[in-house]
Amino acid sequence: MILQTTRNSETFEGHWNAFFERVIDYLPLLLSGLISAIIILVLGLWVIKFLMRLLDRIFVRRNVDVSIRTFVGHLLNWGLKIILFIVVISQLGVQTSSFIAILGAAGLAIGLSLQGSLSNFAGGVLILTLKPFRVGDYIASSKGVEGTVMVIDIFNTKLNTGENLMVVVPNGELSNSSITNYTATGTRRSMIDVRVNYNTDLRQAKEVLLGVATSNPLALTDPPPQVVVTNLAESWITLSVRVSATNAQFWTMHEQLLMNCKVALQQAGINIPYPQRDVHHIDKAEIA
Q1: Pairing state of beta strands 156-160 and 166-170?
Q2: What's the Cα-to-Cα distance from 169 to each of 127, 140, 147, 173, 174, rounded to whole Å?
Q3: Coil, strand or helix: which one is 184?
Q4: CA angle (202 as vertex; 233, 263 as ends), nearest 5
Q5: Whole-Å CA distances, 183 to 129, 135, 136, 160, 246
Q6: Residue 197: burial class (beta carbons within 10 Å; 0-12, 13-18, 19+)
Q7: Domains of the chain
Q8: I want to staple 59 with a disulfide (CB 3.0 to 4.6 A). Which of 64, 137, 218, 288 is the partner?
């Protein structure tokens, strides 16, 4: 029994000595790998910080939108740090091929599960880059949504409607629809259709309406106001009153034109007709 215990003790001591010798043999390699990993980590973090500052200066110089500037900065920062982490652990002897494969599979799974969000992200990038509209513009989409742009985020755009309601529109839907920007040019042109009878003197009607348009203090002179005949309908003739105004004064000018045109036509004795139909009554007794 004593002999067996002695042999076990000698065997354990032999394994321990062998392990200790291997540690001593690999210690310089481990230390060198650890030191190089620390140096790469410190230098890598410094380089990433420098690149982020340089990128931010470029964005500011090119007047890139704050939303896309923040998102791209965070995305690039995390991407560079992941690459730095892989390089550092490879210096410590860790096999990175399987780790990269796991990251790729995780990225694919996340991408498949977030298809809608990624489409909204792509739409947000297009909107912030191409700038079909800006904050403060009044827009309408072919999807039936319209309002004043309040916030443009990377995933959605917030609109304030005429009823003072906040509407959140996904950027993917907004970027794939036709957008009408009413305020992009700085001015808007009002086109009011006025109906008159067929017995109306069109020259007189045009002079009356043009006088209303030119006398409006909010109307712009470039381009000048116009009154043109646009339609010969069944029961009336259509005159179009076209007047431009600034975005801030457009609705006030539009309302004034509507009221003043009605009053001026009434004073000139020009009637605005209602739809008319001729109804013929046939007596059955007369047919018999």
Answers
A1: antiparallel
A2: 13, 12, 11, 7, 7
A3: coil
A4: 95
A5: 19, 11, 9, 15, 9
A6: middle
A7: 18-113 (1.10.287.1260), 126-181 (2.30.30.60), 187-267 (3.30.70.100)
A8: 64
Give yes or no for a contact between 247 and 186, defined as CB atoms under 8 angstroms apart: yes
Q: Is 211 helix (H, G, I), strand (E, B) or coil?
A: helix
- The β-bridge partners of 170 are 156
Distance CA 127, CA 137 (A): 13
**Token duo for residue 206:** 């045009």
Amino acid letter at 231? N
Please tell me which of 98-102, 116-120, 226-230 the model is most confident about, judged by mean pLDDT. 226-230
The 10s digit of each residue's pLDDT in 168-207 is 888 888 888 888 888 888 888 889 898 888 888 889 999 9
Q: What is the DSSP letter of 140?
A: E
> What are the tens digits of pLDDT across the range 121-135?
778 878 877 788 888
The rounded distance, in Å, linking the Cα atoms of 81 and 48 is: 8
